[in-house]
């Protein structure tokens, strides 16, 4: 018996006003629905993850994930998923709306823990608004501390939920409703304020700030050294001299990222007078900077690089360098642009005595 996570991502997003369905819109560097998938995977709580989607997702490279076609409405999609897993020996099922990408893995764990003694566990938050209730023509005041705004993920004992769903005839907006309608107990637990539902375009940009950072680096070319650019070795008559491997692309990227985060410069983190960093490979320098970026909730949405050299020809290595940077930065290739710039054979760079690089990065942060 195992647990299953159902992600509902088949909605038509009528209030979203976009050609692309909301769940596929890019949010914090990836399609909105992927945030929930990644957290479900990372939690290690689930043997199976069911993505209920429209036709736009063909496959995801993970054996745990199955994609099934959704229905017209949310409750139909949810029923399709429950029917699908009915034969699969599922003990507990978690149901989540893809429009809520910001829940925490901790919330999943809390839900699971509370399910040991309950058949349904639902997260909720209270409201800060003064609340009224309209009943026919009369409007009455509600005590706001008694109002529960329910969220997803919601989790259930599968058998109990399945039975209720099969006999249900009403249109429901969440599975908690089935338990309430049938007078079954629900354990309500504190949800998360950040676990907002993204409904309109402006929700995507809520509390979003954009920052820019600039980076520049130059190293001398010397014989008998390997040339590293963007983390890869490129066959060339010389390599870049430096305390490290002299990778001007990575160094200028590091400075631009630090600039965007207002965290000083590369020398602060890797002083060149420290023996510890002698001959260090630059990807090793980039790693802690990327960790810092992710930890502080910054997301790169554009990285533009000018590599300034007479040779080697950038066009020949562009794809390789971008692939390497994409892996190192944990960033989709579509956010990275690399341009080659020669200097008309002028000066040190023109004489193949040095290579320089400049970078501008744009990052988003949700504050
Ligand atoms: Zn450097």
- Level-1 CATH class name of the largest domain: Alpha Beta
The CATH superfamily of the largest domain is Spore Coat Polysaccharide Biosynthesis Protein SpsA, Chain A
Order of helices and strands: EEEHEEHEHEEEEEHHEHEEEEHHHEHEHE
> Which molecules other than protein and nucleic acid are bound?
zinc ion
Largest sheet: 8 strands, mixed
Low-confidence stretches: none
Number of distinct helices = 11
Helix share, percent? 25-40%
The gyration radius over C-alpha positions equals 26 Å
Q: What is the general shape?
A: elongated
Under the CATH scheme, the architecture of the largest domain is Alpha-Beta Complex
Termini separation comes to 41 Å
Give me the count of strands: 19
Strand percent estimate: 25-35%
Number of domains: 2
List keywords for this structure.
alpha/beta; Spore Coat Polysaccharide Biosynthesis Protein SpsA, Chain A; 60s Ribosomal Protein L30, Chain: A; 2 domains; eight-stranded mixed beta sheet; five-stranded mixed beta sheet; elongated; binds zinc ion
């Amino acid at each position: 018996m195992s647990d299953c996570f159902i992600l509902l991502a088949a909605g038509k997003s009528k209030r979203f006003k976009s050609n692309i369905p909301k769940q596929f819109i890019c949010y914090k560097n990836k399609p909105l629905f992927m945030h929930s998938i990644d957290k479900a995977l990372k939690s290690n709580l689930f043997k199976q993850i069911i993505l209920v989607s429209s036709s736009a997702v063909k496959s995801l490279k993970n054996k745990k994930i199955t994609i099934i076609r959704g229905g017209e409405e949310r409750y139909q999609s949810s029923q399709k998923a429950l029917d699908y897993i009915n034969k699969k020996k599922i003990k507990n099922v978690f149901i989540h709306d893809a429009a809520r990408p910001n829940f925490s893995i901790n919330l999943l764990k809390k839900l699971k823990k509370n399910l040991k003694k309950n058949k349904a566990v639902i997260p909720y938050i209270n409201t800060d608004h003064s609340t009224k209730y309209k009943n026919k023509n009369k409007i009455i005041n509600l005590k706001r501390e008694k109002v529960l705004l329910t969220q997803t993920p919601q989790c259930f004992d599968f058998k109990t939920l399945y039975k209720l769903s099969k006999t249900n005839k009403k249109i429901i907006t969440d599975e908690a409703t089935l338990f309430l309608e049938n007078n079954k107990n629900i354990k309500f637990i504190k949800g998360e304020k950040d676990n907002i539902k993204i409904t309109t375009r402006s929700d995507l940009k809520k509390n979003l700030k954009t920052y820019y950072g600039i980076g520049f680096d130059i190293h001398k070319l010397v014989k008998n050294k390997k040339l590293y650019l963007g983390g890869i070795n490129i066959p060339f008559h010389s390599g870049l001299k430096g305390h490290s491997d002299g990778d001007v692309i990575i160094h200028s990227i590091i400075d631009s990222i630090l600039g965007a985060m207002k965290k000083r410069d590369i020398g602060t983190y890797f002083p060149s007078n420290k023996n510890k960093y002698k001959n260090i490979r630059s990807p090793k320098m980039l790693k802690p900077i990327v960790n810092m970026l992710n930890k502080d909730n910054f997301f790169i949405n554009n990285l533009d690089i000018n590599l300034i050299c007479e040779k080697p020809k950038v066009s020949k290595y562009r794809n390789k360098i971008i692939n390497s940077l994409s892996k190192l930065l944990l960033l989709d290739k579509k956010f990275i642009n690399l341009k080659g710039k020669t200097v008309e054979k002028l000066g040190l760079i023109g004489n193949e005595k040095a290579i320089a690089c400049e970078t501008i990065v744009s990052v988003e942060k949700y504050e």
